[in-house]
Write a structure and sequence with these properties.
This protein is of the alpha/beta class. Helices cover 35% and strands 23% of the residues. It has 5 helices and 8 strands; from the N terminus they run H-H-E-H-E-E-E-H-E-E-E-H-E. The protein has an 8-stranded mixed β-sheet, sandwiched between helices. The radius of gyration is 16 Å and the shape is globular. The termini are far apart.
Length: 177
Amino acid sequence: MKKTILLFFVFVNLAYGYNYDDVLLKAQASIFPKIMLLDKKLKDKLVDGKIIYTIVYDKNDYKTALEIQNFIDTRHKGRFDKYVYKINLVEFSDLSSKTQASAIYALNSDKDIKKVADFAKEKGIVTFSYNIDNLKNGFLFSLILEKSTILYLNKKNLHPQKIDFVVSLLQMVKFVD
């Protein structure tokens, strides 16, 4: 009986996407756009004068991506500081060289994470990941809520020729190799 219940929950997760921590999603949706603004080369990443904040998601996580978009829109009301923004929801499988992005936030995926990291590296844009394990796949930032909030930065994927953060941000992150 226990095995049946366990298998049921495994298949439900596979059918309906990942289980996300709502508090962590909201914390990331609040903090990540602010971190993006600390890139000294942000103006080079604007698309038609706007920040394009791209959220990539697995097809089963569309609802979660939409909730993040709504949370950000409610909180920021169309502007990240002095910049007008647009949120672009893109399924992992639809990400291509034609995808516009000033920064990327990725939800979970089993197979397409490396593709997103490579895309961002090529374009020289900041990447954020829901899952800290994606830092080893080439993402730049992730946020974890433990006893305190910890912002992780993958030092290996920081390319100063394309992304240059203010020193105060670098003093507060925890570096991961």
